[in-house]
Automatic annotation (TrEMBL):
PANTHER family, per database record: SINGLE-STRANDED-DNA-SPECIFIC EXONUCLEASE RECJ (PTHR30255)
Originating species: Terriglobus aquaticus
Lineage: superkingdom: Bacteria
Protein name: Single-stranded-DNA-specific exonuclease
């Protein structure tokens, strides 16, 4: 997948739309600082190219694109075309009969019937959803795409870090300010990690903003909301990072690494950050942040693996019966899932962990009473 291929898949999809530029296009995107700029790039470039009826929303807390509740909400909008961005790809039906384009970079499980999948997965280096969206935007509104390159810069910084191997990151740092880009990225990632987990205002900022510096200097109330969200997440993380690591060597041979788990208990989505924080201490191990307080009745866990260790494959090989379709999604070195407590306990015992990782429903119920 490269710039040209992405552009031609995107324009082909647009050319086939039922009502041309009057088609009701709705975008559902991930709530992180990759999905948000990707959706902003798509909305703004489609508008610039004359598409008048384009709307976007972000995934809400606990949601994935294949939940019946999510489909019901999407149907209420009556879209004539659907863009699904940075939300993975599964072979299950989305909105039957509605032309659908998936723009994504995660390890796919399959493609929904009749849908088109624009994915960078399998291409090294792997472009983020935001960079794929920039390539799409360049194909239909090149001038605006050039002005909005910082949106792709944010997505690269957020998903791949400061050393992302794409020129667009270095260029947008030089053009729009490295510090501003970094500060805005951190703010955009905050709302989806809070207890409420709603990133709507973060998306709105990106639909309006001219540049990172302009956004950060603005009096926009949405910016204040992001700052409040960031403070909430920092507080939750300060507690979570004190939790001790636990160790298992039971699967070291198959996996190629020891497994470390850090159990935390917070409604905030900081378990991926906890995994990230422990990496430098144990660079050769797979580290999971395990959150027992994120969602009543469930355990959510996010893992990070060293280069050469395929965590997606390991998790898919060991998926407990009854797990939902998100188990083992993500990237080869960054994967995880969510399990109901009744499935979690035998799963984590199977991985070689003792009572310190077992969860009782009653302790959970007490938490949310
Ligand atoms: Mn992404």
């Amino acid at each position: 997948m490269d710039r040209n291929e992405a552009g031609s898949i995107f324009t082909q999809f647009l050319d086939d739309l039922p009502n041309g530029k009057s088609t009701d296009i709705h975008i559902l995107t991930d709530a992180d600082a990759d999905g948000l700029p990707a959706a902003a790039l798509l909305v703004r470039s489609l508008h610039a190219d004359g598409y008048t009826r384009v709307t976007a929303e972000t995934r809400k807390k606990f949601e994935n694109a294949w939940m019946p509740e999510v489909h019901a909400r999407l149907k209420q909008r009556n879209p004539q075309a659907l863009l699904l961005v940075d939300l993975g790809a599964r072979p299950d039906e989305l909105l039957p009969g509605i032309p659908t384009l998936l723009i994504d970079h995660h390890a796919p499980f399959g493609t929904p019937p009749g849908a088109t999948l624009l994915t960078s997965y399998g291409t090294e280096p792997t472009a983020t959803s935001g960079l794929l969206a920039l390539w799409c935007a360049q194909a239909i509104a090149p001038d605006l795409a050039n002005e909005l390159q910082w949106l792709a810069g944010i997505s690269l910084l957020s998903d791949l870090g400061d050393k992302a191997p794409f020129d667009d990151l270095a260029e947008s740092k030089a053009r729009f300010g490295a510090t501003a880009l970094k500060d805005l990225t951190a703010l955009l990632n905050a709302p989806r990690r809070t207890a409420e987990g709603d990133a709507t205002e973060a998306l709105e900022l990106l639909l309006r903003g001219a540049s990172p510096k302009q956004i950060l200097k603005s009096n926009d109330p949405a910016l204040d909301a992001l700052k409040t969200a960031k403070a909430e997440v920092s507080e939750a993380l300060a507690v979570a990072r004190k939790a001790p690591p636990r160790f298992s060597t039971k699967w070291t041979e198959e996996l190629g690494a020891d497994i470390i788990m850090v159990r935390i208990d917070t409604p905030c989505q900081v378990h991926p950050l906890v995994a990230q924080i422990w990496r430098p201490r144990f660079p050769k191990a797979v580290i999971f942040g395990v959150n027992v307080g994120f969602r009543p009745g469930f355990v959510h866990f996010a893992g990070r693996a060293p280069k050469g260790v395929n965590l997606v494959q390991f998790l898919r090989n060991h998926t407990p019966e009854g797990a939902d379709g998100t188990f083992g999604g993500g990237h080869d070195q960054a994967s995880g899932g969510a399990l109901p407590v009744a499935l979690w306990n035998p799963f984590v015992a199977m991985l070689g962990f003792g009572p310190e990782l077992q969860v009782t429903e009653s302790s959970q119920t007490a938490l949310f009473a």
